[in-house]
């Protein structure tokens, strides 16, 4: 895989020495603020989000190959990152406007890609909600949006990570959506790895959640929808569709579930190149931070938090494909 010097450098910065991405996600904003406030009002909404990110950055960020933050609450946290750690910055505002149709994307205020690069970002991440059954006009808007950000990243010679997130635009049943989700993820891999979008790395959901696969009844939320053979086929098909390296997001599952997911993906012959894992590592520490304070949270991060991260890291090392081995055909941009 051949990239420009800046994009190549960005990919190397967010990876470990073996070219596998072991990144921690800490760009949550609205959802994180609500979680903290549900436990305490000892800190303000903004102070709570910012300080939580600082502490996660100092401990888990520096134990990862890179850290994903946001420019709205994350700048103090960037100061805690060691110089050898890659910094991925989110470019989208959190959530979406529920009063508008289509879940259209919106970029953060006050910062362009040029600004984020100047402040030390190694890569830019854009999240876009997408359903292949959404009205065509909304999906055309989103496709153009991605291309614009791709062009902006190309102009500034910085790595562009796209995170397309599936949702149900049909308002059907949950089971109906889960059954067609593999088709949506397969579309993401095929469509957004096309050169016209300028995406260098895809951050994607797995096509089938581990608790929707037969044989994982140990989970309280187990709801088998696909057999192991069916799920494995979807994992492999999605992997084969991508022309560029891709990584998995944890998607809010537990630490144990995410680890099992990675081993299942390996068994299914998915060539994912690492992970960007957030809540599966630090979610259980939110209550500690909110109720017991900073010192107790630091202790939690150094023990339970690092233990969670190390379990994921061990699984990634055993299951992921280095991005240097993903694509054999040079891609010149």
Question: How would you portray this structure in words?
Answer:
The chain is an alpha/beta fold and 333 residues long. The protein has one domain (5-319): TIM Barrel (Alpha-Beta Barrel). It is built from 13 helices and 8 strands. It has helices at residues 5-13, 30-39, 45-59, 75-78, 113-118, 136-155, 174-191, 228-241, 255-267, 279-282, 286-292, 294-319, 323-326; strands at residues 21-25, 66-69, 86-90, 123-130, 159-166, 201-204, 246-249, 274-277. Helix 2 (30-39) packs across helix 11 and helix 7 runs parallel beside helix 8. The radius of gyration is 19 Å and the shape is globular. The N and C termini lie close together (11 Å). The relative contact order is 0.15. Residues 328-333 have low confidence and may be disordered.
What is the name of the CATH class?
Alpha Beta
Class from secondary-structure proportions: alpha/beta
Largest beta-sheet details: 8 strands, parallel, barrel
Assembly type of the chains comes to single chain
Helix share bin: 40-55%
CATH-derived architecture: Alpha-Beta Barrel
Rg calculated over all Cα atoms: 19 Å
Q: What's the structural blueprint in terms of helices and strands?
A:
Elements: H1 5-13, E1 21-25, H2 30-39, H3 45-59, E2 66-69, H4 75-78, E3 86-90, H5 113-118, E4 123-130, H6 136-155, E5 159-166, H7 174-191, E6 201-204, H8 228-241, E7 246-249, H9 255-267, E8 274-277, H10 279-282, H11 286-292, H12 294-319, H13 323-326
Parallel strand pairs: 1-2, 1-8, 2-3, 3-4, 4-5, 5-6, 6-7, 7-8
